[in-house]
Design brief:
Strand order of the largest sheet: 1-2
Strand content: under 5%
Length: 258
Amino acid sequence: MKRDSARAMPLLSHFNELRKRLFKSALAIGLSSFVGWFLYDNIINRLAAPICDLQQATDSGSNTCGVLYINGVLGPIDLKFKLSIILGVLIASPVWLYQLWAFIAPGLHKREKRNSIFFVLFAVPFFAIGVFAGYLVLPIAVDVLLSFTPTSLSNLVKFDDYLSFVMQLIFVFGIAFELPVFLVSLNLARILSGHSILKPWRYAIFAITLFSALATPTGDPITMFFLAVPLTILYLAAGGIALLVDKSRRKRSVNNDG
């Protein structure tokens, strides 16, 4: 009976810890969503700019963006809530990532903790850089896709669908830019050597190109190029860093033996 009670206590302790971490994450996302509510108009204008700029370029007399539309009486408030929550998750990402790490860290060894700190510190900035790169590519992607609209037809875009498209594009870029962080983390954990990362470079570049073609929602060669080229550079840079780490390890090993 005492043994069962002893087993139950750590489990209960872990559950309480998880609940605290989830509460703090939810609170951070809630407060950040409140901030996102006030950023809504500015963000909407920035997201709509690629389509609106195209329309105004072809119709100089238009001051409004008639290509994008919101459907229904509840459409505007639904969109504001949806975008505010998305912004809340993005703004609060350092907090909930830290809470995730803080929950996992006590069960890790010293080296694993060090590696996880590296991953958390670099994962957020690289994801943000990827998101920004996706936003820069967005006008090109929109221009390419809308160019397929027949001249005899009008193309009205529901903003909910457009928002999903934008989120998919920038999310793909954000996740893709995590590649070097992932590779270097595996190297620090002694799972992959620098040589193992760079040896199959031809296959790696082919895989990057294939991923860029399949993952981007547009599927056009221009967007694929803008994703594949930085990914290839980041892959080679990660391999180079891994080689330097391996070299440093060998040096330390020789010094310790000596």
